Amino acid sequence: MATFTLNRMHLLCRNAHCKSFFAGFIQRAQLSTLESVRNNEQCKLEYLGGENNGIAVISMNRPEARNALGKQFLREFADCTNVVKFDKNLRVVILRSLVKGVFCAGADLKERAKMTNEETGPFVAGLRASVSEVANLPMPVVAAIDGFALGGGLEVALACDIRVSSDDAKMGLVETRLAIIPGGGGTQRLARAIGPAKAKELIFAARVFTGKEAAEMGVVNHSVEQNSDGDAAYQRALKLGQEILPQGPVALRAAKFAINRGSEVDIASGLSFEEAGYSQVINTKDRLEGLSAFKEKRPPRFSGE
To answer: Quick check: is 111 catalytic?
Structure first.
């Protein structure tokens, strides 16, 4: 039975025995999927510990193809996102590359060249769905761009909530060079991030820009000087994760829901999404814990309930 279905049944349970029964199934399903993810070569999932407990890192690792988005890569990437999206203990997900100088070079053009027209459409639809899965993860997602993020690679980063890049990173939606357009959400997410006029200029010209320029345009939140290890953006992303970690996890998810849905509609409709998000936190134990911690002048101990 799919983990999603198990989670739905778990939520519908009314007594402790029932909840415990399905919680066990959910845990075993997640561990099984996690084990398969750990054995994959092109995408890896890691749960951090210590002061970073509550942060999961999805690492792209296909050096021979510069993390190009091929069929196997997308399958393994989907495995990672399927594990984290149902984990209520997670506060933050960081997306990074283990290939020095590269975040993601975009679509696997060698693999794409072998596809027929009939095969290309479904593949691009699957790529678009994989990118949307990142955008739809309930917890905050941070992209650490420590190198090239071109085409589909930038589209993956644009699906994240927060983006950090190194100053020398190179990025761009360059599909028009190949007489195609961005197919993984880039035309929509870049325009929403920096405005339609600037997005049109970048896409029409297939322009490649640096991390520093990306920060100036608002494509990324932060741009940092690269270090000798080539992971400066990842280190900055970790610091951001540590800032997010102490906050209430239910509140984080509700805030993401309200912002994401509200940004797509008029303000009156957006306020209704905010109201819906706020209603999710009113009856939580975490809200009462936050009030008690404030009254007692101590750090809150949120449980995600």
So the answer is: no
- Of the residues 29, 56, 107, 215, only one is catalytic, namely 107
For the question of residue 243 being annotated catalytic, the response is no
How far, CA to CA in Å, does 41 sit from each of 63, 234, 275?
10, 20, 43
The average confidence (pLDDT) of the chain is 85
Reported as a pLDDT band with limits 50, 70 and 90, residue 124 is: confident
Q: Cβ distance 285 to 305 under 8 Å? A: yes
Question: Strand 43-47 relative to strand 55-60: parallel, antiparallel, unpaired?
Answer: antiparallel
For the question of residue 35 being annotated catalytic, the response is no
**Are residues 141 and 93 in contact, defined by beta-carbon separation less than 8 angstroms?**
yes
What tokens were used for 117?
Answer: 């027209």
The helix (H) or strand (E) run that includes residue 16 is helix 16-38
Q: Cβ neighbours of residue 66 under 8 Å, at least 6 residues apart?
A: 99, 102, 104, 105, 148
Which helix (H) or strand (E) segment is 92 a member of? strand 92-97
Q: Residues 29, 105, 147, 155: which is the catalytic one?
A: 155
Residue 301's contacts (CB-CB under 8 Å, 6 or more residues apart) are: 289, 293
pLDDT at 18 over 60: no
Q: What proportion of the chain, given as a percentage, has pLDDT over 90? A: 59
Annotated active-site residue in 68, 175, 241, 254? 175
Residue type, 106: G
Catalytic member of 152, 183, 277, 290: 152
**Whether the predicted pLDDT of 294 surpasses 90:** no
Q: Are 42 and 76 in contact (CB under 8 A)?
A: yes
Q: Write the burial class of residue 184 (CB in 10 Å: 0-12 exposed, 13-18 middle, 19+ buried).
A: buried
**Strand order in 209-210's β-sheet?**
101-104, 147-150, 170-172, 209-210
Closest among 241, 235, 238, 279 to 257, alpha carbons compared: 279
